[in-house]
Amino acid sequence: MPTAGEKEFAQFLRDHRARVTPNRLTVFRAMQQSARPLTVPDLAAQVEDSGLNPATLYRIIETLTELEVVHPVLQDHQNVAYELLEPFARHHDHLVCRQCGRTVDLYDCRLEETLKSISDDRGFKIDFHQMEVHGLCPDCQATPRR
Amino acid sequence: MPTAGEKEFAQFLRDHRARVTPNRLTVFRAMQQSARPLTVPDLAAQVEDSGLNPATLYRIIETLTELEVVHPVLQDHQNVAYELLEPFARHHDHLVCRQCGRTVDLYDCRLEETLKSISDDRGFKIDFHQMEVHGLCPDCQATPRR
DNA sequence: TTCGCTGCAAACGGTTTGCACCGCG
DNA sequence: CGCGGTGCAAACCGTTTGCAGCGAA
């Protein structure tokens, strides 16, 4: 199943009594085209030529977060980045290499299954989860440090 | 196995050629006594009566993060909080209820096992992971929303 | 005695807010 | 036409930085 696109996004907004505006479409497009989560300043740079005002950008991100179109993830040790959620992007987790810093998306349903059985045990009903695994990727294990 | 305490922390600092100072001990104690991850402003409030300077606090957190005594986790939609890592705290993940907002610590080794087998498949060597599961806790499932 | 750590105070810059205008529905 | 969304500009405040003095080792 492919992920939902611009058309579905527009409809989603209408369904939630939020207006479909050029600014919102611009932001949505930028996030869809990015391979990785974007911070607000990242986004600002990305959509720079559209002349989108910073204040507006913050308000759009806030709205999209409330509507659960995007959600925040931790990027560096102090910075928050945003990425699309289902159905606008496939869910995945992240493998982050401590040496080369590359992030690999991890699509694996075993994790979901384990998670489901754990939370079933506790009567907790899952909306979504996010996970980040830090370690050393195969390439960097082969390469001596520095 | 209990977690390492103040004495081990002091030794850890010495081993890393970092000095054992009253400020650092104060911060360590505050984090150890807290049930949940703390933001820097949280910490500032917590250790207020020690007269610790904000700038110093930020520098201590930075140092402890580099030494991997603590690490950042996402708190709200925009705020980063810090928590102790092993061996100063047991590793655990978080269940966050979207209605009451409470965070429950999750200690479960099934997750570790699944994670290990997934990363073994990819030749990725794990240092640590962090996960946050969002959903509805048993209490809130029983209670109608709002 | 040395150099890492700290307090102070100023600077910085990302984020928020108030307000008037615009334009989607 | 009404109200949600936007741009602008100022205010805010969490965080960073430079520097001089202190104190852990």
Structure report:
The structure is a homodimer of 146-residue chains. The first copy, chain A, has 146 residues and is of the alpha+beta class. Chain A folds into two domains: 1-89, Winged helix-like DNA-binding domain superfamily/Winged helix DNA-binding domain (Arc Repressor Mutant, subunit A, Orthogonal Bundle); 90-146, Dna Ligase, domain 1 (2-Layer Sandwich). The first copy, chain A, contains six helices and five strands. In chain A, the strands form two sheets. Chain A has a three-stranded mixed β-sheet with strand order 4-3-5. The first copy, chain A, has a two-stranded antiparallel ribbon with strand order 1-2. In chain A, a hairpin with a 5-residue loop joins strand 1 (70-74) and strand 2. The first copy, chain A, is globular. Chain A starts with 5 loop residues before the first helix and ends with a helix. The mean pLDDT of chain A is 89. Chains A and B meet through strand 1, helix 5 and strand 5 of A and strand 1, helix 5 and strand 5 of B. Strand 5 (125-136) of chain A pairs antiparallel with strand 5 of chain B. Chain A binds a DNA duplex (25 and 25 nucleotides) through helix 4.
Q: Nutshell version of this structure?
A:
The structure is a homodimer. The first copy, chain A, is of the alpha+beta class and about 150 residues long. Chain A has 6 helices and 5 strands, in the order ααααββββαβα.
